[in-house]
Amino acid sequence: MTFLSAGSPLSQPFFQHALLAGTSIAAACGLVGCFLVLRAQVFSADALSHVAFTGAMAALALGYDLRLGLFAATIAIALLFGTLGRGARPDDVVIGSVFSWILGLGAFLITLYTTSRSTTDGSAGVSVLFGSILGISSAHAVTAALLAAGICLVMLLIARPLLFATVDEAVAAARGVPVRLLGHGFLAVAGAAAAEATQAVGSLLLLGLLAAPAGAAIRLTDRPYRALALSAGLAVLEVWAGLFASYAIPEMPPSFAIMAAATAVYAATFLVRRPTTHPATETV
């Protein structure tokens, strides 16, 4: 009963909504982020962070819900990366070219939005940049949780063949694994995860939620499936730590607190000496 007392954050509806959305989003980002690191596609996530902002601003400038722009832009650009890249693995030149164009478009949309619709929702652009998880409504929290659960389910379903294609693409293709289709599908899921993460930590910091827990997990274990579980678990714990820290210190933005926790955990892995083990026994 102590945790649900009047002074407890768990007794506050807004904190319950943030915890529901944050937990599910973190789990999804942990699973997706692990494959982003394994497939050396972290730069793609960095580009998607700017795409998320541009997409949200485009939706707002046109008078639509910003979440529509978030998901449409991130998924579309993620698929574009896969289409332009070889084997649905976009290289740095492709990502950098799209990246620069997206940044220019984002600058134009900021001007368009602030001059035409700033009187209706002037804080929307800031919330997209830095997140607004403590201000999420009950309906939006449930929607975020359902979408994140869908992302987790898809990742669990494709984890085995995607890992095979990640470890040895040529052999996987020879064994009949649809490598290119898997690559496109994963990038689409990564785009959806980026859109989800934007609601929690903002577009400027979503790369941290996708990369830091995964990077820490891979440093702690060389077993891929264990790394997946550890990445998701660390992401959830870091979001919890950030939310409780932000509640205890109101001056601390939740997005900063979450990223501080993620950075601290990743830095701590450099102090842990992983024992030498035999080659991983997990099969792809």
TrEMBL record:
Localization (cell): Cell membrane; Membrane
Protein family (similarity comment): Belongs to the ABC-3 integral membrane protein family.
The UniProt entry lists membrane topology as: Multi-pass membrane protein
Is Transport tagged as a keyword?
A: yes
- Protein name, entry field: Metal ABC transporter permease
Which keywords has UniProt assigned to this entry?
Answer: Membrane, Transmembrane, Transmembrane helix, Transport
- Entry's transmembrane regions: 14-38, 45-62, 68-86, 93-113, 133-158, 179-195, 201-220, 227-249, 255-272
In terms of SUPFAM superfamilies, this protein maps to: ABC transporter involved in vitamin B12 uptake, BtuC (SSF81345)
Q: Name one Pfam family in it.
A: ABC-3
Keyword Magnesium in annotation: no
InterPro entries from the xrefs?
A: ABC_BtuC-like (IPR037294), ABC_TroCD (IPR001626)
